[in-house]
Design a protein that fits this description.
This protein is α/β, with parallel strands linked by helices. The chain is about 20% helix and about 25% strand. It has four helices and twelve strands; from the N terminus they run H-H-E-H-E-E-E-E-E-E-E-H-E-E-E-E. The chain has a seven-stranded mixed beta sheet with strand order 3-2-1-6-9-11-12. A three-stranded mixed beta sheet has the order 8-7-10, with no helix packed on it. Helix 1 packs parallel to helix 3. Keywords: ATP-binding, Magnesium, Metal-binding, Nucleotide-binding. InterPro entries: FTHF_cligase, FTHF_cligase-like_sf, NagB/RpiA_transferase-like.
Length: about 180
C-alpha cells in the first residue's frame, strides 16, 4: 500500500471506529501510534482528542511490557525502540490502562471468534492479562484492513478474544458487550 492508501484507509477507519458506541461514549481510550503499513491511527486519535477523550499511548519497556503516557498530539511523539513513536510526557505506569473504557489493539488478523493474531512480542498479551487480573472490562477493539478478517487464526492458551474489529468498510462484533 502507498502512503496515500494508508492515509485514506486511516481516515475511513476513524469514521467507522467513531460509530462504535463503546468508542463514541468513551472518556479514556488506550490507543497506539500506527507505524509502517499498519492501519493508520492518526485520524482516529485526533478525532478522539478533539472530542475531549483522554487518549493513552503505549511506551515499550525494556522487558517488552507496556507503560502508558498521554497523547498530546503528533508534535509530542518521539522515536523509540523498534521504530515506534511514543509520547514524550510523563509516564503513567503499566496499570494506567486499567482505567481505559476502550483498548485499541494492533493486529495482523482476527478470526470469526474474535481471536487476534498479534505481532508475537507479547506486549498486548501482558496488557490483556493485567486487565483481567484487575477485573477491568474495557471494550477490546482491533483495528484492521478489510482483508484481515479470517475464518481462523492460530490460538494459544493465554490468548483472549477481542469484542470487535473495525475496518475501513465496517464494524465487526464478536463478543456481545453489555450496554
Amino acid at each position: 500500500m502507498t502512503a496515500d492508501d494508508i492515509e485514506k484507509a486511516g481516515a475511513a477507519l476513524a469514521c467507522r471506529a467513531l460509530e462504535l458506541p463503546e468508542i463514541a461514549g468513551a472518556a479514556t481510550v488506550a490507543a497506539y501510534v500506527s507505524v509502517g503499513s499498519e492501519p493508520g491511527t492518526h485520524a482516529l486519535r485526533e478525532a478522539l482528542r478533539a472530542r475531549g477523550v483522554r487518549v493513552l499511548l503505549p511506551v515499550l519497556l525494556e522487558d517488552d511490557d507496556l507503560d502508558w503516557g498521554e497523547d498530546e498530539g503528533p508534535e509530542r511523539l518521539a522515536p523509540a525502540r523498534r521504530g515506534l513513536l511514543e509520547p514524550e510526557g510523563p509516564r503513567l505506569g503499566p496499570e494506567a490502562v486499567i482505567r481505559a473504557d476502550v483498548v485499541l489493539l494492533p493486529g495482523l488478523a482476527v478470526d470469526r471468534r474474535g481471536m487476534r493474531l498479534g505481532r508475537g512480542g507479547g506486549s498486548y498479551d501482558r496488557v490483556l492479562a493485567r486487565l483481567a487480573g484487575a477485573g477491568a472490562d474495557p471494550a477490546l477493539v482491533v483495528l484492521l484492513y478489510d482483508g484481515e478478517l479470517l475464518d481462523e487464526v492460530p490460538e494459544e492458551g493465554h490468548d483472549r478474544p477481542v469484542h470487535a474489529a473495525v475496518t475501513p468498510s465496517g464494524l465487526h462484533r464478536f463478543t456481545p458487550r453489555p450496554r
